[in-house]
Amino acid sequence: MQAALEKAGFDVTVACDGAEAVRLFEKAPADMVMLDVEMPGMNGYQVFSYLREKIGDELPIMMVTGMDDMQSINHAFEAGATDFIAKPINWNLIAYRILYLRRGYLNMLALKIANARSKAIFSAIPDTMFILSDKGIVIDICSHPDNTPWLITDAENTLSRSLPEEIVNLYQGAADRARNHGTVELFEYPLKLAGEKTRYYENRIVVIDPQETLCLVRDITERKDSESKIFHLAYFDNLTGLPNRQSFMERLEGEIKRARYTGNKLAVLFLDLDGFKSINDTMGHNTGDIVLQWAAERLQSSTRPSDFVSRSNADQSEVKLARLGGDEFTVVIPNLSRAEDALILAHRIRETMRRPFHLESRDVVLTASIGIALYPDDGADAETLLKHADTAMYHAKNEGRDNCQFYNINLTSQAEKRMHLENDLRNALQQNEFYLVYQPQLDVIKESFLSAEALIRWQRPKQGLIAPADFIPLAEENGLIIPIGEWVLRTACTEAARWHQNGQSLQVAVNLSPLQIKNPDFVQNVLGVLSETGFPPDKLVLEITEGALMEHSENTLATLLALREHHIQIALDDFGTGYSSMNYLKRLPINHIKVDQSFVRGLQDNKENLAIVRAIISLAKNLGFSVTAEGIESLHQAQILKYFGCETLQGYYFSEPVTIQEMLALTDKQWSIQALKPPGVNHESS
Ligand SMILES: [Mg+2]
Q: How far apart are CA 531 and CA 539, in angstroms?
């Protein structure tokens, strides 16, 4: 054996028995030991046990056994022998057996070293490392489990037992990407555990093999906290906690971009406290700082949505405040629909500021001057808007402080006018400032007035009579049209019911706003008014415009059908100015069409109008609607319209709108209109 091994290049030491083997090994340890099971004195197993205990399992030991000695072979395996060789030994192969054994041994050593290195690296990296299977099971935690105390490590530990579903999904998505692209995937997530503050984790995922990925989890809460501290320092004012100039400019730029995209307006309010400098000078900076904090609080309270939305159309949920520095503050109102909404907010702020501050046992009154610039009218970028709002603020100071001005000087008075108009309009119903007039409508066949259109008038205490065109659009904007419309309906039915009691059963027509029809309670309201006033439903005509019909057509249709079911009549007002197709009209449950006065006006000398009116009347009659023409100012127009077959005529030629008493006097009058063929009209086709 010695010769065979030496031939293969090994240095061989031979011992005659177990005791000698131990002695020789202690003198010069070998890289490998072969032990015969049967030896005089210490047998092979005794030497084996001694060497294992002394060197450990890194020493490869081969047991030499008898050929059929199954018990020894088994015993050697159980004791942890590296290999066995059975006698008789094939001397040609023995060297190769040993070479193979040695190679395996060296590989094992290399693996052991590599493992030790990995372990060292793992423990040097502060992350928790664990191996995740493609089934979402945490197979092994390699290092620092303490950093992720939430990670459950007992048997069957799927990741979903440790983390909420949305975070498990993040892991699985990243693992899939890492698997598909061979990349290192990085993601972050916050984790809020019961009773603890939110912590932030950064996670890297690397593929080990198709079934396993390595996850490195790092707690980055401290980094996140300091980032947010830095962000706060950079973007917020220390004294008041409001966003600072930097933050304001960035937000304003963002809002301008959005407004440019949506086509909306926005307002920048520039606010400066009047007389703040003297507080600083006389009471010291500490007191000044306290006043600024109070002012900021008031500014916040006066721009809270609940305080403001009810008073204007602006969506104030996104109003943004900032302190530019010193006693200068700014407010941005995005999605501004009307200039006066900015003015309403400015007045609100001024009112709030005007309340005295209690300082060192005395009251100090501090007012604010406010300048307003509008996008896009006063500037297309943040710098310009701010500059112009600043200019407007100086203008407000010059106007005597505690004042508010637009950058566009004309706008201030316009917006104020509209604001006051709106304020007065809100009170007009309670103050009984509205009244109705009636314009009679002539029945062409019966040759007398059988119906009248109720029209609203507003007697504004100081300004006198206001035309509907000057306040109805405003009422539509701010929703007041709903109570006003209801008032008109109730009043018209009440007054007309009195005619009926006098034996004159006139029809009364009431104009509706699209907003009223959209109101889901509308039909119930109408029926309520009819039963309260005792006015017969079939004598009530509700006039709606084409525009109102086109909007929300399904709901509108349902509303109209419900009204018709109760015998209330429907007229389509201002016909010809909208875009209704006749095809659409024929599906609608309407009774009358009112030809818009713009067509009637030029009837006798405008061929186009003549053709249009004639076509409308002819089509309407074919569809079973009766036709009323509005805006008749001359006998000639009335005669042509009668010739075309128009059933009802309304206009100044017959009567201007009159009071209810005057209306009654007009009903006795008889009219005689002779049909007159206009020149150039072919009789057969009319
Ligand atoms: Mg009308």
A: 13
- Ligand 1 centroid distance, CA of 574 (Å): 7
* Residue 399 backbone dihedrals phi, psi, to 5 degrees: -80, 10
CA of 530 to the centre of ligand 1 (A): 20
Place of tokens 């501050």: 357
**What is the crossing angle of helices 245-262 and 382-398, to 10°?**
110
Which residues have beta carbons under 5 A from ligand 1 (an ion)?
A: 511, 543, 573
Q: Which residues contact 495 (CB under 8 A, 6 or more apart)?
A: 436, 454, 660
**C-alpha to C-alpha distance for 561 and 564, rounded to whole angstroms:** 5
- Report if pTM > 0.85: no
Q: Which two tokens stand for residue 308?
A: 């403001």
Mean pLDDT computed over every residue of the chain: 87
CATH code at 2-121 = 3.40.50.2300
- pLDDT bracket for residue 150 (50, 70, 90): confident
Read off the pLDDT of residues 121-145 as tens digits, 9 standing for 90 and up.
Answer: 888 888 898 899 888 888 888 888 8
**Residue 244 half-sphere exposure toward CB, CA atoms < 13 A:** 12
pLDDT for res 229: 86
Confidence of residue 412 (pLDDT cuts 50, 70, 90): confident
CATH match for 238-423 among 3.40.640.10, 3.20.20.10, 3.40.50.2300, 3.30.70.270: 3.30.70.270
